[in-house]
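Moderator note: this is an archived Q&A kept for reference. The question asked for a predicted structure of one protein chain; the sequence and the answer are reproduced below.
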Amino acid sequence: MNIEKELSKIISKSNAIKVASLIGCDDALFKQLIKVLLESNNTSAPQAAWTLSFCVQQCPEIIYPQLEVLIDNLYKKNLHDAVKRNTVRVMQYVTVPEKLQGKAADICFKYLSSGTEAIAIRAFSITVLCNICQQQPELSHELKLLLEEQMRNGEPAIISRGKKALKFLNTL
């Protein structure tokens, strides 16, 4: 099966779900999906990113062999928002391995502190950072300070998620 061809048929949620169900827990097909997502000049990358989130929902363990390359991909310039959004979304639902937590925290702090990133990317970054703080509590003070700053004049999604995050961080 050619994943790129399947992704380029129709750009829609239903197609992303369909392709994710075709991939299932098949590592070889998932690697094809990741290859499409990583090619930044590929017009199918946003659809591949959306499909990624559905793949991980149905088979969470499939992400672990590819997680480092996905996190490294977030450091590219001019990355499509859908790729950023769905990669960070996926990181909310898995336990980021200790060896990748530094990179994941770094990019999520960068997104959260940015005034130009999309709200969803920033909101998902809050959750990823809270999850990392469970294992790295020394980061919680820095995250609290940043959240308080972002919530002062923040968008409703940032304020809402920030309140929940602060409540959680105060229990650590």
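Archived answer notes: The chain has two domains: 1-66, 95-172.
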